[in-house]
Design a protein that fits this description.
- By secondary structure, the chain is of the alpha/beta class.
- It has three domains: 221 residues, HUPs (Rossmann fold), CATH 3.40.50.620; 84 residues, no CATH class; 54 residues, no CATH class.
- Helices cover 46% and strands 7% of the residues.
- The chain has a six-stranded mixed sheet.
- Strand 1, helix 3 and strand 2 form a beta-alpha-beta unit.
- Helix 1 crosses helix 7 and helix 11 runs antiparallel to helix 12.
- It holds the Pfam family PAPS_reduct.
- It comes from Edaphosphingomonas laterariae.
- This is Phosphoadenosine phosphosulfate reductase family protein.
- One of its GO terms (molecular function) is catalytic activity.
Length: 389
């Protein structure tokens, strides 16, 4: 065990150890590639440091290790890229920075709302879909991180065993309580693939507590991101994260470098009429940073949001989105109610009202059902149908 890890144990009064299993030990012994995912946050940095020393003890060659960072663009703290570079240099391994070719996190939110409006106009969705990711739809981590890092590693190290080292801890949330130490990752290297590439995910510090992680930073002399020490954030992700607490959102607004991003995201709230988080408007976190014009736009958006929710709540519940939507053609009365509710929402967003009457709505539902049934016949009923976010 390394000196740094021994000191961490002494400081915390506990004995946190690097979690591993026979599959990881074998991968290390056979010279697998280890890719350390760095976000700039405390968990990824400490995970990489502790795992590096654990691998050193096993004699794993350092030249078969790499750090990787998925750059989320404007959504990041401005200091994050530099922090990631600092940690990679301290680890003494090369850094691979990857980016989503279709645009950054902010562009993804904007694209989602634009797509949602187009589909709502075409009556391909029952309710208007907002721009933001959420706890149940975390495309921020899937599309802009995993779906970018995974293929990049699979291409770079084709034919190898690749271990992605990620700093998830069970203490972080109830959803992570059952995080495994190791799992096979078939998303980007399916079993029996032509290149014979194997991918695994390893969570070395899965049983560590926050106090262990912070003590480890102190013991190893690892720097902490400014979000923690300068601004009091409890975690690091995007500067403004859809999963952040009110306190962490407030912490982000105290950094002047985040002010333009803050106003831009509030502008998306104003345009879309969807709050950044369910029940919490980002605009309310630091209203003193908003211009008078933007504050007025937010007030109007909040009113429009209440109106939209009331209108959608009054639409027939039996026709709400389910897998394979739509379930049936509305009745005449239902069609009229849907058309009336949609007209207000469409007008608010400057969209064309292509189905302004109950009869037009019913005809559109009938066309959607016909198209779905035709697809089902071709695919054996395996398609999920329309209405997916």
């Amino acid at each position: 065990m390394s000196f740094a890890i021994r000191r961490t144990r002494a400081l915390t009064g506990r004995t946190p150890a690097v979690a591993a299993d026979p599959a990881i030990i074998e991968a290390a012994a056979t010279g697998a590639w280890f890719a350390f995912s760095l976000s700039g946050g405390k968990d990824s940095s400490m995970t990489a440091w502790a795992a590096m020393e654990w691998l050193d003890d096993l004699g794993h060659p350092r030249e078969r290790r790499i750090a990787v960072h998925a750059d989320l663009g404007r959504a990041e703290w401005r200091s994050t890229p530099a922090m990631v570079e600092v940690i990679a240099r301290r680890l003494e391994i090369p850094l691979l920075v990857v980016r989503r070719s279709a645009g950054d996190m902010v562009a993804r939110w904007e694209q989602r709302f634009a797509s949602g409006k187009a589909r709502y106009e075409a009556l391909e969705t029952y309710n208007l879909i907002g721009p933001w990711s959420s706890s149940s739809l975390r495309f921020c981590t899937s599309e802009l991180k995993a779906q970018v890092i995974g293929p990049a590693l699979a291409r770079r190290f084709a034919g190898e065993t690749i271990v992605s080292v990620i700093g998830l801890r069970r203490e972080e949330s109830p959803a992570r309580r059952f995080t495994p130490v190791v799992r096979e990752d078939h998303r980007f290297a399916k079993p029996g693939n032509r290149a014979n590439t194997r991918m695994m995910v390893w969570h070395p510090l899965v049983d560590w507590r926050t106090v262990d992680v912070l003590a480890g930073h102190d013991a190893c002399g690892l720097p902490l991101h400014e979000a923690y020490g300068c601004y009091g954030s409890s975690r690091l992700s995007c500067a403004f994260c859809v999963l952040a607490s009110a306190a962490d959102l407030g912490a982000a607004t105290r950094a002047q470098d985040n002010h333009n991003l803050y106003r831009h995201l509030v502008g998306i709230e104003a345009e879309s009429t969807f709050s950044f988080q369910p029940g919490r408007w980002l605009a309310d976190v630091a209203p003193h940073l908003l211009s008078n014009a933007l504050a007025r736009q937010i007030a109007d958006a909040k009113h429009a949001a209440s109106e939209r929710r009331a209108l959608e709540a009054g639409m027939p519940s039996g026709l709400r989105f389910v897998k394979g939507w739509p379930p049936r053609v509305p009745t005449r009365d239902e069609g009229s109610r849907i058309a009336a509710a949609r007209s207000v929402i469409l007008r608010r967003h400057g969209l064309e009202d292509r189905y302004p009457t109950g009869a037009a709505v019913r005809a559109r539902f009938d066309a959607l059902l016909t198209a779905r049934n035709a697809r089902d016949r071709q695919t054996g009923g395996k398609e999920a149908g329309l209405g997916r976010a």
